Structure prediction request, 614 residues.
Amino acid sequence: MQEFKIRLSLRYKLLLLLTILPVTSLALFLLMATDLFRKDKVAYVFDSSATFSRSLATQMRMDIEATYASLKLITERWDAASNQFSPVARELFDKSPKIHALILQRKAPAGQFVTLGQLIKDKPFAQKFVESPLVLNGLRDQALLNSISVSDSGFNPGTIKMGLRLGKKTDAEQLVVLALYQADDLVNAFDASGLYGTMVLTRSGSLSIGSNEDSASELPTIKEILKTKASEGTAESHFQDGRTYLVSYAAVGLGDLIVVSKIAKERALKAVQVLLFKSLLFFGALIALTLVISVYSSEQLTSALSELFVAAGKIAQGNFNVHVPPRSNDEVGGLTISFNHMAKEVSRLMQETAEKARMQNELATVKTVQETLFPPAESKFGPLRIRGHFEPASECGGDWWSYSFINNKVYLWIGDATGHGAPAALITSAARSAAAVIESMPDITPGRALSILNRAIHQTSKGQIMMTFFVACIDPEQSTFTYSCASHDPPYLMRRTGQRLSKKDLLPLNDINGPRLGDKPGFVYQDVEIKFSPGDMVFFYTDGILDIENPKGEKWGERAFLKTLIDSANKSVDANAKVDHLREVADQFRAGAHLIDDVTMVMCEYEMAQEAAA
Prediction:
């Protein structure tokens, strides 16, 4: 073992690592978290302020519509003949507690507006309203322009002045209603806006409800925001006072009135500043704690590694044929050199032990399961000759086939569990156990057998692993072939006609089909009965034979499989030779490549009388 000299102690390396890495990580995290929280907070403020503006706009529209309905009801009772309001109109006005004053004006031919009539309640501010020509003229001009005008009255707390244009803007004789009404709920809603500064504007930017002093520097910026003509929206804008505001707006839906809410961005993000301050305090405390822990941990760790280094140097006298290049000139580098002398042997022993244990376990499972599941590959029952072949894709297979002779009838079973390996083998074992019980039942039919198997498989796998299956019952005395299928690949019936078979002579037995076993536990499978005469053959198989691949990854496929099946039936005399020919062709294509899935094939041949006797 070569001499090793420590240049930079691992203790100092760890101290630097444990200090710099947490500081850098925490700083990046703090930056990202603060930025994310700021963006999320802005989005939240936009959403809440938009909801607030929309709610105020809805409330204002409902309040105006209710007042408008009352005003319309009164003005419709203007008596043109007497040129005054009718007694009904006066009574409606008196019974309307919110309406304090109402003036009906009409445009004269000369262009000026004349008052047709007015209704005033005995209140000083109502009298002051009707005696303010500048107020009335401005209110009327806005109503003529936008069909409706609403603004703070300035005459009494909680009152709002309203102007309504009756008829179209182009009418020769235009009627205008000017009113002063009580809107405490609406005014209180604006006053109780809390964090948000609210106002009502027109599309042109004139102020309807709000403080002239507060909005003087804001109106130019808000006018730019409202140029989009959208019914509602949000924006982040720099006002003339040098501050950035988060603005939301929503159209009232009457005239060109718009409710605008705003809040200073610095005020909205005050929580971010608090979070940042607290995070910095926590950050400083965490760094201090990290330094203390780093000093303590580096001392403890390097001491342990130094002892391990000495111990590893002693063990390194053995011949463990491995080599790990040292990556650093510290204790870990020395430990790497020492470890090279023992790692190969430890690795080899561990691999051998694990491989041996795995092989022993799997071979024991294969021996227990596979040897007990399958019958002899070749058998003969009177005129019926059966030849089967099974080859698993791994130590454990998920295919199973069998046969039995009960009451002069031959039963053939073939199934394919989902996947392969130990889980699939356990399911085939359960199927074999259930089949053994079913065979003891009198006059069992293939459909009845599948129904019982279905419940057994479902109880065993709880629907996690399913199984395709095909059960056939051959009665040589009655010359019948009865079968039932659970989503299994249909066997092929080949009838002997005295001539060479072709693809059209392959008849798939797929007249009936049910779900896989274990899928629907209560399903009742049906039977199909066909004629089965001497000379006929049936070939059973699982889909693994179609998935055979060569070393290039090319599949054998259904076309090559069917061609080989026909060739085997034409060239060979008995069932054994037919199956052997199929195996040989498949093995030649496979060329030693691993199987993708288990392969099972069974040939059942109903021999002629002379062949059976021979």
About this structure: The first helix runs from residue 10 to 75. The longest strand covers residues 99-107. The mean pLDDT is 81.
